[in-house]
Amino acid sequence: MESAAFDRLSDDMGRNILSKLPLKTLVRFMSVSDRWKDAAREIVEERKEKMKGLVLVNFVSIDFPGMYIPRYAYVSQNSGGGAGSDVEGMLDLMEYVPVKHFTVRDVCNGLLLCVGISTTAVDENGDPVANFYVCNPVTRQWAVLPESPPASSRDLVDVLAFDPTVSHYKVLRWYGSEATRQGQQQYVEADVYCSSSGTWSRRRVPLQRRKKNITCPTRTTPSSTFLKGFVFRLADPNAVIAVDVSGDRIPSAHVIDLPFQKNDPPVHRCLAKWPVESLCCVDYNKTRIEMWVLEDFPAKTKWEMKRAVSVERLTAMMPMASVVKKKEKPLLPVTMMFRGRVRGEEEIVVVLEVPDGVACYNLRTSEVEGVYPLDYLRRKNIPFRDVIAYPFYPCLCSP
Amino acid sequence: MSESTEKKMVRLRSSDGEVFEVEESVAKVAKTLQDMLEEDCADAVIPITCVRAPILTKVIDYCKDQVMISSSSSTTNNPNERTEQERKAWGQKFMEGVDSSTLCELLVASNFLNIEGLLNLGVDKMVSMIQGKYPQEIRDMFNVVNDFTPEEEEEIRNQNAWAFERDPYYKKRSSSK
């Protein structure tokens, strides 16, 4: 009677208890005894499922001169919304990655690309070293990348290209406008890190066709995305540049025209994924939010408008409408999230920046699902300037 | 509520042979007993084969309390009805001082007797006891035998090193021998 009290519990009951434990204890439980190892592991898997529907929102605020300190929020159908540094499993990178500060630069298929300042490593002058880290917030595994070559320009975006079926990833530090023009030939220039070789190299990729005055300005919105082996990046005027990063070499850069006429810089625009494996350009033009979709790239390069929402109607639906109307920068779409299918129809949520936080608009039901005010930021009196949001699709792959 | 003044009594026998006499309404808090009583397949004494007397005492305490709450809940403005907060506080008090092996037996009992409320109380208590503990602490608490080989244990730990950092209870078994 005295022995193994816990082992007297039935499997169902054991699972019931395990499912209520925090992730860390649960993982420790995997090494308690053979009987509970698989049950604990299964629940870790379920937890991963729950992280589905999470949108990681990066609120860029200026805490220190010359340095952005991002704040994070989550918006999910399972746990509602919130913001801060205390969200279990998701936002506590600093608990297990040895960094003092970090900023999330990109999110791709369950992995985060961060820049962090190491708590231990210092350079020859004794200054702390900043490095790229690739982390999986579900398993809490992480890898630090070797030092990158000195940036040739500050005008850049960092992109993580991770294909879970191949389980190698690439990191692109893609330079902006200046680098794209060189005499008659136009180029895309990037430092590329490849996880299979473990090294960085500078690549200069010629554009497949010329386009007058083409530049890739750095935007505050997610302006790049990875799918089907290609990294896509928004370019001006009205174009998207795509590079194939699936192989060791980057053959050439495609120039895809966007279906807009004017040469003015766009009011607000971002790139996102449209199910299944299609590219979507979300365009905000003061009166409407339009979703243009490019299917079957590179076989096709024709955009099709899938959905449009009137900004006026959207504003009227906002519970905080009065607050929203007062500001001059209302309802900017920042990303999109695919949640699976409901009765055969795809459930897609557009995440919008609103003055007090973020809101989710469900395209299937045409309803505003929730406005997530950032109480944490308000409480701490942290002003935020820009919102960069990434949909998070959890996986158990290790970086 | 009660059509007869004479309260019907039920007798329960624990695994170690002790007999408890309780009101039928108290026994019926346990769904398993309720089914038996309603199907009239309960004889003079119902054997509760997997529950020891001290545990059965605790279970009966819980059932009595439930009857006390529900007996007055049919009337309006029930003074015994508890708020969510009071219910929580009561549950905590009920579970106070329950050690890990009693708790396991209590869980087995409430599962067998199908008493959802008690089961939930037990699970919550269990979770609060395990939370944040290291593997060896969990094994000690529940007398779980470590049936991994040192290599297997090492491997699990290495795969999830973040969860095992600063484990003060961990000694490599191979090196301690």
From TrEMBL, chain A:
Q: Where is the F-box domain?
A: 9-49
Write down the Pfam families for this protein, in alphabetical order: b-prop_At3g26010-like, F-box
| Lineage: superkingdom | Eukaryota
What range does the record give for the signal peptide? none
- InterPro entries in alphabetical order: At3g26010-like (IPR055290), Beta-prop_At3g26010-like (IPR056592), F-box-assoc_interact_dom (IPR017451), F-box-like_dom_sf (IPR036047), F-box_dom (IPR001810)
Supply the name of the protein: F-box domain-containing protein
Q: Which organism is it from?
A: Aristolochia fimbriata
What taxonomic classification does the UniProt entry list for its organism? Answer: Eukaryota, Viridiplantae, Streptophyta, Embryophyta, Tracheophyta
Automatic annotation (TrEMBL), chain B:
Q: Which SUPFAM superfamilies match?
A: POZ domain, Skp1 dimerisation domain-like
What pathway is this protein a component of?
A: Protein modification; protein ubiquitination
Signal peptide range equals: none
The UniProt entry, under Pfam families, shows: Skp1, Skp1_POZ
Tell me which Gene3D superfamilies the record gives: Potassium Channel Kv1.1, Chain A
Any idea where the SKP1 component POZ domain is? 8-65
Single biological process term from Gene Ontology: ubiquitin-dependent protein catabolic process
Ranges where the SKP1 component dimerisation domain occurs: 117-163
Task: Provide the alphabetized UniProt keywords.
Answer: Ubl conjugation pathway
- InterPro entries reported for this sequence: SKP1, SKP1-like, SKP1-like_dim_sf, SKP1/BTB/POZ_sf, Skp1_comp_dimer, Skp1_comp_POZ
Q: What does this protein do?
A: Involved in ubiquitination and subsequent proteasomal degradation of target proteins. Together with CUL1, RBX1 and a F-box protein, it forms a SCF E3 ubiquitin ligase complex. The functional specificity of this complex depends on the type of F-box protein. In the SCF complex, it serves as an adapter that links the F-box protein to CUL1.
Family assignment?
A: Belongs to the SKP1 family.
Q: Subunit arrangement?
A: Part of a SCF (SKP1-cullin-F-box) protein ligase complex.
This protein's name: SKP1-like protein
Organism listed in the record: Aristolochia fimbriata (White veined hardy Dutchman's pipe vine)
